[in-house]
Model the fold of this input.
Amino acid sequence: MDISKQSREKFLPSILICVSFIILLISSVGDYHGRDWGSWLDSFFLPGNWVISKVGKKINDVNIFIKEFKNVWEENQKLNKENSFLMQRTARITELESENNRLNKLLDFSSKFPKILLSAAVIGQDPSNWSQYIIIDKGGKNNITVDMVVITADGLAGRVAKVWPDMSKVQLIIDRNSGVGAMVQRTRANGVASGMMKNICEFKYFDDKEDLQEGDILITSGLGMVYPKGILIGKVTKIEQRSLNMSRYIEITPYVNFSKLEEVFILKKNMDLVWPEMENINPEVE
Done:
């Protein structure tokens, strides 16, 4: 058997299959009763077109979603920036209002005593747990000397303990080593307001027979040659009876908020000075 005959025998089954497929295809076309080839091809490819259409629609929907998501994200970023700006602006306005109110209060207070008060800014604070000091921006160049009294519009803050040319160190009345001659405004009972740290003082060395009540106001007594009479110190917030020696523990909460000191006034030395405006005022009444 020659090579050409072997080739024909090899490809004969394939040829027969193709012919059969063509005959089947022609028969199928005949069943469409005269429908043209275009219609038949449309019917033949219809499932594929439907799939492609659906896939295309999904892709288009995804593209629209991505575009809308991007727009929403960009708008959200813009709103976040605007919100941050508004928050900063609101905080700034609030701070300015607070500062304005504080300065107006200080101005009103200092205007009552223009010749005896020198304003100063707090520029530092002692972080020690064993002492309570602040640093102010006035010193020897401003004629500041040791033991000058430091006050605020709310009451007594302390005294100048050390002076440098451009600044001074002020010992606060809540310092453990501080002692202020004090008087109960209601009964005129005398004693000493001693620092206890944690923004409180203790009233000591008073006559134990004195009538003391929570809410009593304490002012400087003028005794001790440092603090003039009549400056507000604080009020009695706790009274405890100690059983060992039958004495009373009297806790005083100062009117000055030492954790928020920003500006103070230095009182020029004048031991004849009395503060009738502060002595006769009740801080609890507006």
Observations:
- Residues 117-279 form a domain with the Thrombin, subunit H fold (CATH 2.40.10.350).
- Helices lie at 3-30, 37-112, 276-279.
- The chain is about 40% helix and 25% strand.
- The longest strand covers residues 232-241.
